[in-house]
Design brief:
It contains five helices and no strands. By secondary structure, it is mostly helical. The longest helix has 16 residues, at 2-17. InterPro entries: Cyt_c_III_dom, Multihaem_cyt_sf.
């Protein structure tokens, strides 16, 4: 059972890290956006994020911060 949980955690981590935003987009100034307290809703309001990206609502809540995005997706 312990190994199954470890494998599931590794699968999740590898799927999240597989999407690196800077592969398609210019680097985002995470520090500037963190000062503005940007979250996913802010991205959508300013940049129409939802028009081009479909997010898994179970993992990506509207209050997810830009710092948390950068931790998984390499946006800085």
């Amino acid at each position: 059972m312990k190994y199954l949980a470890m494998i599931a955690a590794l699968m999740f981590a590898s799927s999240a890290f597989a999407v690196d935003c800077v592969d398609c987009h210019e680097a985002i100034n995470v520090e500037e956006h963190a000062e503005m307290e940007a979250n996913i809703e802010t991205c959508n309001d300013c940049h129409s994020f939802a028009d081009a990206h479909e997010l898994d609502a179970d993992l990506h809540t509207p209050d997810l911060t830009i710092t948390e995005c950068a931790d998984c997706h390499g946006v800085d």
